[in-house]
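Morning, I've got a small favour to ask if you have a moment. The fold is given in discrete form, as structure tokens running alongside the sequence. I'd be grateful if you could look everything over and explain what you see. No rush at all, and the record is pasted right below.
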Amino acid sequence: MSPRRSLPLRTAVAAGGLALSLAVLSGCTQVADMINTVQGEPVSAVPAPAPSESPAMAFNSQFTYDGSVALSSDVAQDLELRLDVWAQNPKRTQEWTADAEKTFGFAVNVHDNRVDEKSVLSQKRRVFISSISITSQTAQTSGQVQSPFQFSADPRTLVPSDTIRSDRGLLLNSFQGGLYVPETVIHGLPVDTYGMTLEFAMTVWVEGNANDDASFMQQTVYQYLPVAIFSADQAQASAPTPSATP
């Protein structure tokens, strides 16, 4: 055997001896100790950091994900007040940035689940809305909180004059009335805004028994609508790619 091959052979013999020693050891602890002795101390695995979410996506908003939302409140047993809100312009909520004008529409209606929706009004418990207001609260990376958007109105001034109304306000019952506001504009927001919560406050008069003027009671209903706000870069990145011309 030539001298050149003696060193690799010795290395192979040594490795084989180590493998044999490991094989005859009993118990997982002894095997682990032997491996640690040969390889040194084990290195703890460090999990890779999760990809960071953009601030807008971290602001949970069903309205932003779907472009519309239906919020419901019970004003009496089996009597549901419903608030529908939808993005009007831009319709793609990923384009709702701090500096852009953001237009949404909303509607308020009521459903008496004790009777069929097509029942005559005298068979339903009537609900009138006498005032509605919307306030806002921003979520900003700076930690500041502001209220840049405000809205307040008598619902009777927001609909045509022939809509059913009374001294208690505008009638909401489905098929006989309702409040429909197609456009409400949110102007510029602080530049570091990544979310905003709209608070709807609606003062209503609720009839306790159908066709009973003496049974009305007043209450205020609150609904909260989170809205994500995107940066200009995020809005541009989410824009659909134009299809190539054949």
About this structure: The CA atoms of residues 131 and 154 lie 5 Å apart. The helical segments are 6-24, 28-39, 55-58, 62-66, 232-238. The longest strand covers residues 193-207.
